[in-house]
Amino acid sequence: TFGLFAVTGHAQDFSTERASVRVTTLADGLERPWSLAFLPDGRMLVTERPGRLRLVTPDGAVSAPLAGVPPVFAQGQGGLLDVALDPDYAVNGWVYLSFAEDRGSGTNATTVMRAKLAGAALEDAQIIFRQQPAVESPAHFGGRLVFGRDGRLFITLGERAGRQFIERAQSLDD
Predict the structure, then answer these.
(1) Which has the closest alpha carbon to 70: 29, 109, 126, 120?
(2) Nearest to 134, CA basis, from 99, 154, 156, 110
(3) What 3-state DSSP class applies to 109?
(4) Which of 79, 81, 90, 165 has the smallest CB count inside 10 Å?
(5) Is 10 a catalytic residue?
(6) 108: burial class by Cβ within 10 Å (0-12, 13-18, 19+)?
């Protein structure tokens, strides 16, 4: 078993230098799944890079795409990226998403929003972070989300792959 899931799907065993690993497919039909977050009731929120968020049940049933997901820049390495639940999700209901956002004039950048899950939709959406500057690049968005023990949200960001950006990647004022 895995958490609340009785894993009964197709399994495949792999041997590595350090351990044996069993990989079991729980759900099929997802297009480029990128991240997942477990809800308290055992379902998972799963992001698909082309811009869809889905619910997957413990028995592997995949929902239709949820409403309220923002439009994403789904080119190159961009798209709908991470999903995370607020540490106080049971109290406040916040779900966080990171995604590559089209900013117009050929530019794009990583953006983070939060919203509340209501049935098959996200509601009360709020953009809480926009990477600056937006640039013309389909790569290196980063976008992983993790909460620290103190409740602070940390966001990974890529240097956006252009030579002019790589040199600025470690600058704390950019």
Answers:
(1) 126
(2) 110
(3) strand
(4) 90
(5) no
(6) buried
Catalytic residue from among 43, 114, 140, 160: 140
Q: 6: burial class by Cβ within 10 Å (0-12, 13-18, 19+)?
A: exposed
Beta bridge partners of 135: 108
In this structure, of 2-11, 96-105, 118-127, 129-138, the range with the lowest mean pLDDT score is 2-11
pTM, full prediction: 0.89
Whether 80 and 69 have beta carbons less than 8 Å apart is answered as yes
Judge contact between 130 and 111, C-beta under 8 A: yes
Q: Which residue in the block uniquely carries the two structure tokens 């992001």? A: 47
Rounded to 5 degrees, what angle do the CA atoms 91, 54, 39 make? 30
- Residue 89, phi then psi, degrees to nearest 5: -50, -40
17-64 pLDDT, tens digit per residue, is 999 998 888 898 999 999 999 999 999 999 999 999 999 999 999 999
- How high is the pLDDT of residue 140? 92
- Specify burial of residue 89 (Cβ count, 10 A radius: 0-12, 13-18, 19+): middle
Q: In the predicted model, what is the mean pLDDT of the chain?
A: 91
For Cα atoms 79, 84, 87, give the angle at the middle one, nearest 5 degrees: 160
